[in-house]
Amino acid sequence: xxxxxxxxxxxxxxxxxxxxxxxxxxxxxxxxxxxxxxxxxxxxxxxxxxxxxxxxxxxxxxxxxxxxxxxxxxxxxxxxxxxxxxxxxxxxxxxxxxxxxxxxxxxxxxxxxxxxxxxxxxxxxxxxxxxxxxxxxxxxxxxxxxxxxxxxxxxxxxxxxxxxxxxxxxxxxxxxxxxxxxxxxxxxxxxxxxxxxxxxxxxxxxxxxxxxxxxxxxxxxxxxxxxxxxx
Length: 231
Fold this sequence. Notes:
Blueprint: E1 11-16, E2 34-35, E3 38-39, H1 40-49, E4 54-61, H2 66-73, E5 80-83, H3 88-97, E6 105-108, H4 118-129, E7 134-140, E8 145-148, E9 154-158, E10 164-166, E11 170-173, H5 174-182, H6 191-197, E12 203-206, H7 217-228
C-alpha cells in the first residue's frame, strides 16, 4: 500500500542514495542492496513516509538507475527521484534543487540508516521548527577512545564525555542549507559540517539505536536480526 505524504506538512526529506558502498562488498550500489528481501532504500523511504509532517521526499539515485529507482519506490510513497552526483555533497545539492516551494524545513537522511524510526524524523524536524537553524541526532560515545600517531602508538586517552556519534536525519532551515551548499568549497560527507563552516550553531537531539548506519556486512546482518525482532 502506497503511503500518503502530508500536503500540509512543512518538511522535505532528501535521501542521497548514489554511493557505491565499497565497504559493504561488491555488488549493487549500497542503497539498492537487499535487507530482508527489499533494498535498503525502500526500508528507509517507508519509514520517512510514516513521519506525519513530511510533505516531500527527494531521492538522489545513481545516474544509471533513476528509472529503476522511480519504479521501485512508486508502490512505497510518492517520491521525486533525481540523478545523484559522484560525491554525496553533489547528490544532496541535486536533491535540494528539486524540492518544491512550500517546505521550509529540510532533512538530509542516509539511505544506509534504513531502520531509522519515524519518531526520530519528527524529533529533528520539531527542533528546527522550534527555532534552531541546524539539528543533528546523536548518541553518546560509549567506547574508550585513544589518540594515536602514524605508527599506532597511543598518545593519550580522549575524554569521551564531550564526544557524540552523529546520525541522520540532519535537519536545517531550508535557507540555511541552501546557503551552505552555495558556499561549499571542499566536499564534506556531513551537511552539518557545511553549516558549521558558515558559523551557524548546530544543536543536538537524542538519536536512536535503530538509526545505525549499514556500512559493513556485519551491520547488514545486525539489521536483519533487528527486523526479525520487530524493528
